[in-house]
Description:
Radius of gyration: 28 Å
Structural class: alpha+beta
Strand content: 15-25%
Amino acid sequence: MKELIKKYFRCAAAAILIAGISAACLSGCSSDNDKNKENEKIQVKVQYQCGRMNLDLESVLEEKFPDVDIVTDELVGDPYYIIAKEMEHNIEPDIYLYEGLYNMDDKTAADKLYDLSQEKFTGNFYLSAVSECVNEDGGLYYLPGPVYVYGIVYDKTAFRELGLEVPHSYTEFADLLNEVRAMNLKGIEPDENNPDATVTVDVEPFVPTIKWSDMWTFIFDSYIYDDYLKGVDNALWLDKYQQGDESMTGHMEGAAEKLIKLFDDGILSTDFWEIRAPVRTAKLYRYHTSLMTVECQSAQGFNERENIETSDNFHEIGMMPFYTSDEEESDYLFSMPRCCFGMTKKAAQDEEKKKAILEIFDYFSTMEGQDLMIEGGGGEINLLKVSNLTDDPFYDEVRDTFSHGRVINRFNFAGRSGAVEAYMHRTTPDLAEGRITVEEWLKEADNARDEALDSQPEEEESYGTVTEMLSVEETAVVVGEAYIHATGADIGIVPCRASFGTKNRLFEGPVTDKAIDVISTTRMSTGVVTEDPNHVNMVTVKITGQQIMDLLEENKDTFVGLAGFDVVYDPSKPEGERYISIKYGGKEIAPEDEFIAASVKGAVKSLPVAESFDELVFRDMFINYLEGNGNVISGAPESLKIVK
């Protein structure tokens, strides 16, 4: 691993010199299948995480790269299951815009993703950010998109009024906490036992919530990073540890002692394990009964929200880094990715497509491109050397930290399971109060790691079998057939979209809970029964042939599964002309024909409800459908013919 990381660093440095040669090598011919037949554009499929992608991404990229036809696909449901199945069947997209790439195991990444380590644009990122993406084989299979950056958020207004100085070392930070405590400041909060009354409380200098392991990880990793996680030797140890070949004992004793010191120096308290996030938020922003907490850049939005009705109560806030020692350059911020981007090896097999994608990635490695990757509103920060911190005073105290690349990521001692972090988080109060020794704590962390490595996923119950993989469109028709089976309707209507429809497919093999859940239609899988008339539920409606055609016109850019009909569909036709034939009982439907249709209420919201089925849970409904078909789905439904 040590030599592999050194190899990557050498490659990154050489990339600038060889970029011209590499670009020349990227010429080639594209396959006819990957070109838009109408205008000979190179088609690039981008799969993005639900709720994350900027909706302008497709139009902006197509305007910036006029020879490329961008096709976007929203990743809805369990992404680990879906991506694993896509890769198993070799149907992965060309580009992943997906947060979980940094959690993908190294072997899968190396097998399925293209190595970007030779590309010049990798030099646009801080070396610390890129090094966190390096695979165990030295490859670089993805790059970071925008991130949430966590530090210590403080009340700048209170600091000014109290004459407090912002600290710039570990000792100064600890001294600041003691200085505030010595002031014996008092504040007012609502009485928990009487909503009409208030109580006087001590103003506390620092109140984070460590109720969940994520926040514990931000603090622990940041404070021990320099000595125990930074550099090639520590990276080699971590890599071996994650594989079960190293122990916490002999490496992390000092890290445990430093964690205890945070308690001894008054920085951490076991009380923080009981504080809920809303309490922490209200104390800092609304009641001003604390001066500091741990939070990301979203703190600015929280501050505005807490004071939206009382603007005169508004205080200015800022962010400072974690000061981990009294040495220079020991200030750190912690980052959590909103998305990462990578190219599949399948896409890279087409030289012309690969060249186009690398040009897109070069754009993604700029501030403009980073901003495009994520839907706005979260104030995400990029990890480029040219930072987008702007001139917002909120970031004044972290500019140097950021500009020197001292922004670290999660390390995950036991891989994606988070088992070690969960154990350490839960037992840190025991360590701090002497109920468990350092030796015992580290040994039990090893045991948590070993159990995570040894544990095999429980074999899921299978309710049936799919004999061959279905497309998303074919799956929508099968789901519609399940609607009919459950309600006795004539037809079933299932749009291929995230809202009130299905975006995923049935893969070949056993039909497990996960296989059913990823094709479930909105909210039905929760089993929630409610009398709220706005609740999304299964309904039947009366619908005419004309209303069906109107519904298809309203959804002309989306395939709508029409179970119960015989449908011929040609995706190569213009939008609105793709349904070549829709027959019922062997005859083309007429405008005056009437049917009882089953659907999710939101998909047919313009039609009056004939009957509601609030009690239906999608999983149970689909299992019953399977049982009615002998627990076998024998390939694509015969009622749907898609013109190739």
